[in-house]
Structure prediction request, 380 residues.
Amino acid sequence: MVLGAGASGLMLATQLYKKGCTNILLVEHNPKIGMKIKVSGGGKCNVTNENVNFDNYLGEHDFVKKVLSAFSPKALLEFLNTRNVYPSIRSLGQYFCKKSADEVISALEIGISEKTLLLNTRVQSISKDSAYIVHTNKGDIEAKHLVIAVGSSAYPQVGGSDIGLSLAKDLNHTYTAFTPVLVGWTVQKEQFWMKELSGISTYVSIDVGHKKLFGDLLFAHKGISGPAVLSASLYWKKGLVTIDFLPNISIKEAFSQKKKQVSTQMGVPKRLSKLLLENLELKDKKIQDLNEQDWKKVELLKAYPMSPAGNFGLKKAEACRGGIDTSEIDAKTMESKLHKNLYFLGEVLDVTGELGGYNFQWAFASAIVCANDLEKKMLE
Ligand SMILES: Cc1cc2nc3c(=O)[nH]c(=O)nc-3n(C[C@H](O)[C@H](O)[C@H](O)COP(=O)(O)OP(=O)(O)OC[C@H]3O[C@@H](n4cnc5c(N)ncnc54)[C@H](O)[C@@H]3O)c2cc1C
Prediction:
């Protein structure tokens, strides 16, 4: 039995069907399958990335590495091609569907029938006797093999929930609570000026801890968002981050034309340059007129310090940090080390990828690892 008909649960089921294991039941509380896939990548599903490495993930590196090595982005693309889905790179190595995310859902639903799918069925708890007993709002279901693929609590509006953690608790597994990541930041009073720029975006890099993330920063009425912020949010817990508003150029190069005004040489949208200078308490003037004190402020354009106030919350988050402790899972099979025939897949585990197709690649790779093991057991 597979709990959750999302990315990892569907990939597992379709692989098992392909191998002749038809005795599978998928349990899903939504009225439809794959609802997170449907809304992903702005409706076009960023299904994977050209460059996938354990370094793109928060999680135990050896564990992540082992699982990812079982199913490469190339293998995923080949699988999709066999089902007439041909994603292409849009930017930064990110593969998106040509028309819509429905292409991926259709590829994954092959083999699944009404008989093997229980929709509108909410898993509530699990107990273990001689078999696993799954308690749902529609009654109890017994299973010899149980796969927990219920994802994280990000985006509750399409079914995200933290049931995975309470199921883990039922079975004595260790976990870390979910917190929203791949999400915009709210700002402190000192950065309220940013809200006035709502709708404007600019290319930046953001330094957070040991990571530097590049991409667009989008000013929003609640704070800041956009790919650079979403990626950086994966690594931010609290405290200072620095934003480089001129990521492709040094201060010396940017301000080499001494007779020009500072604002015209910043290479950012006009309204942003005005408010940035105001916030740095730097009067716009000719570059040749900058004094030593002014140059110190100009330098801050490449390392603008700010402490986010918080984030936009679960309803806006594309993923969650936290999940089941992977030291209790076998990376060769995805089976629990505490209970035989119990498996965990995808985002319910304490592994989270950066923005850019990494989370689907993780969900699918974990499903393939599990399928290889379960297939043997089910065909025994
Ligand atoms: C808006 C948005 C955009 C995203 N875009 C991308 C992207 O472009 N690229 C990328 O790589 N990642 C993206 N992600 C992240 C990606 O969707 C997830 O990491 C991935 O779906 C995780 O797969 P999963 O199988 O672990 O969980 P899910 O795909 O979330 O599947 C879990 C399933 O379990 C079901 N479920 C939950 N609780 C219960 C319960 N109590 N009973 C029964 N069923 C339950 C859920 O409804 C869901 O169908 C995005 C996420 C969001 C929210």
Summary: Residues 3-9, 27-30, 35-36, 39-41, 45-46, 122-123, 149-151, 154-155, 159, 161, 163, 318-319, 346-348, 357-360, 363 surround flavin-adenine dinucleotide (CB under 6 Å).
